[in-house]
């Protein structure tokens, strides 16, 4: 039970930091990795991963997303969190986490677009011309991004809940 609580608390901390501060501190990433590896080594992983699967998941998570960081379309924290989620959940869970998080990020982006459009904001200049009817902003916490690490962590919590309650079996 404590193993599941550690995972859920760590994942929720990732969500809070990513959504609230738009940063995920390295100490949180390292703490998550240490817990994941210690639980895997002791046989008490909430995802029933062993140390070899945790290591493989860590490497697979890192190498799967590092190209997106290199291209500048993803933050380093997103890559690190996905790697640590690989250590927690194992390599087999990573494709499903990635798909679920990407779908959630897409829904979030659509919601953000819809909620940030203004249609009745007409500013008239002294010459009588009008400003554009609408504008869209993706600025959250001063940055133009989607909290993808939070989406990954929420997908992992969902995966844990599905496995814990036997829905996927």
TrEMBL record:
The keyword DNA-binding does not apply. The keyword Transmembrane helix applies. GO terms for molecular function: aspartic-type endopeptidase activity. GO terms for cellular component: plasma membrane. Keywords: Membrane, Transmembrane, Transmembrane helix. The chain crosses the membrane at residues 27-44, 56-76, 96-114, 148-168. It comes from Caballeronia sordidicola. It comes from the Bacteria. Residues 6-110 form the Prepilin type IV endopeptidase peptidase domain. Belongs to the peptidase A24 family. This is Peptidase. GO terms for biological process: signal peptide processing.
